[in-house]
């Protein structure tokens, strides 16, 4: 029994290890297809080499990959597994084919239903939920089997207990491994991001100041020159253009400077919703030019210590991006919502703009990433750096042509 149990465990480890070695670093556009394929292989291997109990019964762990894929992947991803499982099972035939079919259909219908809630849970709760799902479904399966077997003898109960503990135990182990991998990937992304920010802010601090002064002087003299009566029309145009370009350069420098600002100077005790409302009023004229409406709601006012300049800048950047995303669609509504959940302030900024693809979302926050002609690609970088500094999190949900939602959590 032990050999076959270990063998089954090895089959289940197989997708985890392969993913870890070969696919962890790939962008996630096709990696989940690979995972479904690997799980299908693991499941088939489990069916092919079942665990033989000494008392003569056999059972296997095929439902572990099935349940895990159902929970993480939802209906779309578990469907191939469902088909493979049943085709294989009908091909093998024999006792219990119909029960297996009915059971897998039930699991297929019920479990993925909770998938969307499941993926939003935190890591610990996911492990608990997956284990509970595994316990309940397999427990239910064995329970229904007890009606089929007339002889409800001791051996049957030994089988049941063995099978159930094995299922639950292996599910816990596999879930811990999966969650650990997810946590590692997230940590690494965070580190890369903060490294990026460090480099940028160091550069920003040293270069921005040096550049700003000559820029101001030059643009001052150009403005004087522009007033001169002896300039021809052409020359005037050149000066105008130079001034425009200088303005652009100044904008980039001041965007940069916002990273370099020392934090402690601006620390204030203030009200977060007042801050949001204040920044909303600043941005209102910009919104109305672009035919964008702003809806603002908050349930509670929160007082907290934070760097006011940076937080304000951060909200303004977010609003501006939202408005600019809707400008291209000729208008829309920007929803701003602030609420309190447990120890956190939750800020929800939603637009009905052009949206982003998954790939574009993954590039958010990289220096100079911008899809706009006049864009600097520093706004999102600044937002990420500010939110990281206050140990908050940003989640982005977006659909192309539908809109974007930024969900920001700031701990208090
Ligand atoms: P910029 O606004 O100067 O282009 P940002 O760093 O603020 O730079 O934004 C980077 C890019 O992220 C934008 O060019 C845009 O493509 C994308 N983006 C940011 N926010 C949104 C949004 N709300 N909707 C759609 N795209 C967005
Ligand atoms: Mg921007």
From TrEMBL:
InterPro entries: HATPase_C_sf, HATPase_dom, His_kinase_dom, HisK_dim/P_dom, HisK_dim/P_sf, Sig_transdc_His_kin-like_C, Sig_transdc_His_kinase_LytS_TM
Broadest EC class assigned to this enzyme: transferase
Residues spanning the membrane: 5-22, 34-51, 63-85, 97-115, 127-149, 155-178
Keyword ATP-binding applies: yes
Any one GO molecular-function label of the UniProt entry: phosphorelay sensor kinase activity
UniProt domain Histidine kinase: residue ranges: 206-412
BP-aspect Gene Ontology terms: cell wall organization
Places the protein is found: Cell membrane
Keywords linked to the UniProt accession: ATP-binding, Cell membrane, Kinase, Membrane, Nucleotide-binding, Phosphoprotein, Transferase, Transmembrane, Transmembrane helix, Two-component regulatory system
The reaction(s) this protein catalyses: ATP + protein L-histidine = ADP + protein N-phospho-L-histidine
Bilayer topology: Multi-pass membrane protein
Protein name per Swiss-Prot or TrEMBL: histidine kinase
Species of provenance: Paenibacillus mangrovi
């Amino acid at each position: 029994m032990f050999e076959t149990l270990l063998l089954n465990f090895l089959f289940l480890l197989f997708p985890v290890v392969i993913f870890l070695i070969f696919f962890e670093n790939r962008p996630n556009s096709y990696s989940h297809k690979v995972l479904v394929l690997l799980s299908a292989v693991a499941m088939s291997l489990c069916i092919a080499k079942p665990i033989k109990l000494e008392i003569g019964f056999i059972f296997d762990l095929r439902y572990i990959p099935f349940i895990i894929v159902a929970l993480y992947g939802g209906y779309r991803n578990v469907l191939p597994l469902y088909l493979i499982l049943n085709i294989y099972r009908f091909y093998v035939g024999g006792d219990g084919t119909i029960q297996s079919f009915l059971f897998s259909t039930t699991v297929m219908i019920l479990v993925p239903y909770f998938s969307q809630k499941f993926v939003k849970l935190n890591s610990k709760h996911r492990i608990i939920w997956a284990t509970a799902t595994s316990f309940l479904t397999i427990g239910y399966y064995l329970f229904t089997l007890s009606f089929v077997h007339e002889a409800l003898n001791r051996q049957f109960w030994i089988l049941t207990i063995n099978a159930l503990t094995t299922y639950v135990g292996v599910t816990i182990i596999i879930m811990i491994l999966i969650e650990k991998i997810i946590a590692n990937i997230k940590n690494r992304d965070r580190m890369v991001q903060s490294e990026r920010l460090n480099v940028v802010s160091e550069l920003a601090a040293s270069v921005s100041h040096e550049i700003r002064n000559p820029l101001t002087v030059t643009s001052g003299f150009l403005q004087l020159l522009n007033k001169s009566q002896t300039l021809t029309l052409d020359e005037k145009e050149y000066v105008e253009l130079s001034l425009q370009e200088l303005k652009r350069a100044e904008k980039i420098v001041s965007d940069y400077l916002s990273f370099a600002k020392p934090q402690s100077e601006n620390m204030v005790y203030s009200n977060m919703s007042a801050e949001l409302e204040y920044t909303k009023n600043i941005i209102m004229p910009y919104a109305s030019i672009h035919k964008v409406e702003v809806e603002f709601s908050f349930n509670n006012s929160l007082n907290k210590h934070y760097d006011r300049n940076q937080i304000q800048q951060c909200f303004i950047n977010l609003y501006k991006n939202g408005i600019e995303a809707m400008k291209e669609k000729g208008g829309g509504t920007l929803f701003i919502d602030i609420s309190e959940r447990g120890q956190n302030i939750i800020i929800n900024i939603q637009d009905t703009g052009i949206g982003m693809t998954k790939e574009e979302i993954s590039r958010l926050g990289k220096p100079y990433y911008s899809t706009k002609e006049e864009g600097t690609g520093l706004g999102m970088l600044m937002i990420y750096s500010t939110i990281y500094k206050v140990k908050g999190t940003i989640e982005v949900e977006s659909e192309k042509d539908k809109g974007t939602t930024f969900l920001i959590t700031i701990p208090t």
